[in-house]
TrEMBL record:
Name by which UniProt lists this protein: 8-oxo-dGTP diphosphatase
Limits of the Nudix hydrolase domain: 1-128
Domain of life per record: Bacteria
GO molecular function: 8-oxo-7,8-dihydrodeoxyguanosine triphosphate pyrophosphatase activity; 8-oxo-7,8-dihydroguanosine triphosphate pyrophosphatase activity; 8-oxo-dGDP phosphatase activity; 8-oxo-GDP phosphatase activity; metal ion binding
EC nos: 3.6.1.55
Any GO BP: DNA replication
Amino acid sequence: MANIVNATFLGPKGILLARRSQHKKAYPGLWSFPGGHVEENETLEEALVRETEEELNTRPQSFEFLMQISDPVSQAVTYHIYIVSRWDREPEIANNEHTELKWLSVDEAKNLRDLALMEYLAVFEQLELFQQKRETALLSEKH
């Protein structure tokens, strides 16, 4: 079974999606979360940090596991989705894996017609719940 980590950058501008390059074997030209394969003897967290540095030239400083999803085409692939809430510099395209980065609201992301996986819709729902919990926690801290 292949394990893939995905970084869901969540910040004031929304969530970050990356358009996969046309040369990619899986889901070319479609929107996805940055990330990649977990290498042998590497933890999920180590892979997350390595992949975001390789693809986005930034290092996650605060992240937490959100959920996992399976690839509908190949059930032998599991995607481990992490929320990245702090990073050391603005993400940018750092290699040839993506052609475009875009910050979107969760609602905008849910309405994209060219997502790599429709299973991302479940991720967007979980992100909305996460944001609501975070906002509720911030409000209760102020009172």
